[in-house]
């Protein structure tokens, strides 16, 4: 008689691979015993990435300080990381999210509520932040997308606008230049303001 197959404890990383949905995320995330991480999913596959370093964190805080007031004046709301649904089996968590209007006590944000995701490009997820996520957001009809790339002594920012189903460059600047636009709201600043102080 063959020995019974060993029983392994349930492990959501293994047992739910390819099956992740928002409902399963609400039930099983964050995963107990794992270090703090960003959880995102595409086509049912969970993607985890560590929190980035101080340069990205500083830039995110400075962007909030620079953009929150002009966004409010235009009737919009700027939030730090939110869960944005991308379908039945996926979601993204941009570093900052500009919504058309403020929300209250909402865990999962629908794509039609989003005016502009803002990603501070991470070395660990460069391809995803620069290529995959913009493609997903364009397919969902999100009107704008912003990239911020922090380098040791330089910052590059690009604001993209959805045109004909694809994002096209609307504004771009690097440290020492003026990054300015009138849409989705009026703002102007030097990207160097996002660098950590020396």
TrEMBL record:
Protein name: Uma2 family endonuclease
Domain of life: Bacteria
Source organism (scientific name): Kribbella jejuensis
Cross-referenced InterPro entries: Nuclease_put_TT1808, Restrct_endonuc-II-like, Uma2
UniProt keyword DNA-binding present: no
Keyword Lyase tagged: no
Domain (Putative restriction endonuclease): residue spans on this chain: 29-186
Keyword annotations of the record: Endonuclease, Hydrolase, Nuclease
Gene Ontology MF term list: endonuclease activity
């Amino acid at each position: 008689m063959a020995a019974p197959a060993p029983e392994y404890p349930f492990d959501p990383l293994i047992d739910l691979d390819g099956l992740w949905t928002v409902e399963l995320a609400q039930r099983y995330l964050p995963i107990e015993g794992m270090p703090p991480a960003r959880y995102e999913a595409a086509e049912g596959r969970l993607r985890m990435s560590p929190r980035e370093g101080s340069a990205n964190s500083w830039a995110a805080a400075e962007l909030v300080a620079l953009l929150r007031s002009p966004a409010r004046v235009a009737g919009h709301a700027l939030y730090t990381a939110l869960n944005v649904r991308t379908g039945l089996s996926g979601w993204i968590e941009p570093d900052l999210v500009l919504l058309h209007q403020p929300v209250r006590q909402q865990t999962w944000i629908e794509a039609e509520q989003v005016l502009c995701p803002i990603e501070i490009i991470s070395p660990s997820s460069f391809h995803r932040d620069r290529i995959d996520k913009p493609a997903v957001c364009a397919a969902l009809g999100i009107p704008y997308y912003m990239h911020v790339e922090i380098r040791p002594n330089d910052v590059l920012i690009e604001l993209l606008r959805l045109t004909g189903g694809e994002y096209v460059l609307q504004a771009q600047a690097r440290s020492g230049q003026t990054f300015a636009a009138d849409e989705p709201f009026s703002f102007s600043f030097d990207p160097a303001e996002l660098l950590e102080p020396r």
